[in-house]
């Protein structure tokens, strides 16, 4: 990562597309976050309708913390921010995929680049 601030890339809010997103009974949708350059899966988290809109309009990843029951703007405390580069929803509308530029050490709270650093077998 260079010393300059990564650009914010807001994504257009299209009501017809947002309406296709299917939230579960808790009002949440799973989100897979992937590095735009390496394509490595960084993490899986959750969004509600508000944090999805915030993410798209701000151009930074904003999740819903199920454990803390609050908005979680990735990197506000760790400095390991994620900047949106592209956003997708799957064929059923029940899972989201974001390609991001990862800042800092990585996505995982353990200090690993990816939350998926442990392998079975």
Residue fraction in strands? 25-35%
Distance between the ends:
33 Å
Shape: globular
Let me know the average pLDDT. 94
Task: Please count the beta strands (DSSP E, at least 2 residues each).
Answer: 6
Give the class-level CATH name of the domain at 28-102.
Alpha Beta
Number of continuous helical runs: 2
Summarize the amount of helix as a percent range. 10-25%
The second-level CATH architecture of the domain at 28-102 is Roll
Helix-strand pattern: HEEHEEEE
Structural class by helix and strand composition? alpha+beta
Task: From the 3D structure, determine the CATH topology of the domain at 28-102.
Answer: Ubiquitin-like (UB roll)
Largest sheet: 4 strands, mixed
What is the spatial order of strands in the main beta sheet? Answer: 2-1-6-5
Features of this protein?
single chain; 121 residues; alpha+beta; Ubiquitin-like (UB roll); four-stranded mixed β-sheet; two-stranded antiparallel sheet; 2 helices; 6 strands; 31% strand
